[in-house]
């Protein structure tokens, strides 16, 4: 199912009246600030988030998985679904592939389909946390950290193959996340596991094309429940520095122990020029992978406030990779991703409204109350008219979720694919 601007023009016409008056209200509200709302609208229109190839079907847990009907059964169909998301939002212009879950059979055909939807290939993800059916080695006791040199080499080889596939597709980065760790005290020698991991990552980095980046993703626990080799930002930061200047830390919002100050981690990594990118999602307890901004929207805003400050003040930190990493256990995957894109753009727009100059002055004067008021004034501003203006500017649906339902897209996908298809991934 291909969405065209014709599909959207009538819908947008109805939407336009209401949001233009809301936009005019914002223009009046910020007329006394040296702030260009048109510049913000342009930044929102240019902001592209990569969609994870592993999150286009119904997700699940060990307690069950409830299929959604019309799920994409191939990489080609997944690209078509991301094409629908991008046509509706004009913010989903990239895909992040997970190998081997989404290995491209026919690279040429896959590139053509992606191009036809205006989608580029963002970071490639290797998978050394599952044994493949034809596996010659087992990752049961780890991969890059494994005590068995042959298993480490097997995992390093897999990452080199993922880079090779990425080069053919035009990707420019590799994300390495390791499940490696232990379930019980005494099971692992922490130092040996970390040293093996560092050596293995260096061998992967050694084969990274000169114009590529490597992202090292950390996580405190799951699937190991006593220790994880790359457990926190500090360990990832250390390993990235040990590898080289094109190795960075990737922040998955769900990979933090409760109440961790993630915005401070973001500020620290940007100051050190080692923040590579994000896996956006939200969570109340663990790595819940629920809809972005659905549980802690203020925390997401505070993270974007540090990102906006960093993008203005830290030229030492390169452009960031923006990716979603979520799992859809009870929502239509495409509606869930539309909501996540909305939440990310809302947090970014609110952060762009922060009067950074006034904040800096209030911080210098230790005017604690004023600091909070400056932040919350931006956070409490309804910025959705700016997102609607950005989408109209980009030829997207002013209200993507309403358009998705109005056009009966899920019904059409079920008609095309049936109810039995199952998407690869989590
Ligand atoms: C690990 C993770 C990682 C992916 C996987 C699908 O929890 O966040 O980014 O490889 O999910
Ligand atoms: Mn992740």
UniProtKB/TrEMBL annotation:
Q: Which InterPro entries match?
A: L-rhamnose_isomerase, Xyl_isomerase-like_sf, Xyl_isomerase-like_TIM-brl
Q: Which top EC class is named for this enzyme in its record? A: isomerase
One GO MF annotation is: L-rhamnose isomerase activity
In terms of superkingdom, the source organism counts as: Bacteria
Q: Which residues form the Xylose isomerase-like TIM barrel domain?
A: 103-289
| Keywords annotated in UniProt | Isomerase, Manganese, Metal-binding
Instruction: Provide the E.C. number(s) assigned to this enzyme.
Output: 5.3.1.14
Q: What is this protein called?
A: L-rhamnose isomerase
């Amino acid at each position: 199912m291909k969405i065209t601007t014709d599909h959207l023009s009538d819908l947008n016409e109805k939407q336009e009246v209401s949001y233009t008056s809301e936009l005019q209200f914002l223009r009046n509200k910020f007329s006394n600030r040296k702030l260009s709302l048109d510049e913000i609208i342009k930044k929102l229109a240019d902001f592209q988030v990569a969609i994870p190839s592993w999150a286009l079907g119904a997700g699940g847990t060990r307690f069950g998985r409830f299929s959604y009907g019309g799920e994409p059964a191939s990489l080609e169909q997944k690209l078509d679904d991301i094409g629908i998301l991008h046509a509706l939002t004009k913010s989903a212009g990239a895909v992040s592939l997970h190998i081997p879950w989404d290995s491209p059979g026919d690279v040429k055909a896959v590139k053509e389909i992606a191009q036809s939807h205006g989608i580029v290939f963002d970071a490639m993800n290797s998978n050394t946390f599952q044994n493949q059916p034809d596996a010659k080695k087992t990752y049961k006791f780890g991969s890059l950290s494994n005590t068995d040199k042959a298993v480490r080499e097997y995992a390093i080889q897999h990452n080199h193959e993922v880079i090779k596939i990425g080069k053919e597709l035009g990707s420019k980065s590799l994300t390495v996340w390791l499940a490696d760790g232990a379930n019980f005290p005494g099971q692992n020698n922490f130092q040996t596991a970390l040293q093996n991991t560092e050596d293995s990552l260096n061998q992967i980095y050694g084969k990274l094309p000169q114009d590529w980046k490597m992202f090292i993703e950390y996580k405190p626990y799951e699937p190991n429940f006593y220790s994880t080799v790359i457990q926190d930002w500090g360990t990832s930061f250390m390993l990235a520095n040990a590898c080289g200047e094109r190795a960075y830390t990737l922040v998955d919002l769900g990979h933090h122990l409760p109440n961790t100050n993630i915005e401070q981690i973001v500020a620290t990594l940007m100051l050190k020029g080692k923040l590579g990118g994000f896996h956006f999602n939200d969570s109340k307890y663990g790595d819940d992978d629920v809809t972005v901004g659905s549980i802690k929207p203020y925390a997401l805003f505070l993270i974007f406030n540090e990102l906006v400050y960093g993008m203005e003040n830290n030229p030492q930190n390169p452009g960031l990779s923006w990716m979603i990493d979520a799992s859809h256990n009870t929502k239509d995957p495409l509606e869930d991703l539309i909501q996540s894109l909305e939440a990310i753009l809302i947090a970014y727009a609110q952060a762009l409204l922060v009067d950074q100059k006034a904040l800096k002055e209030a911080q210098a004067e230790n005017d604690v109350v004023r600091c909070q008021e400056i932040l919350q004034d931006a956070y409490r501003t309804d910025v959705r008219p700016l997102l609607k203006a950005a989408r109209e500017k980009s030829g997207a649906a002013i209200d993507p979720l309403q358009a998705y339902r109005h056009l009966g897209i899920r019904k059409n996908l079920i008609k095309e694919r049936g109810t039995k298809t199952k998407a690869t991934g989590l």
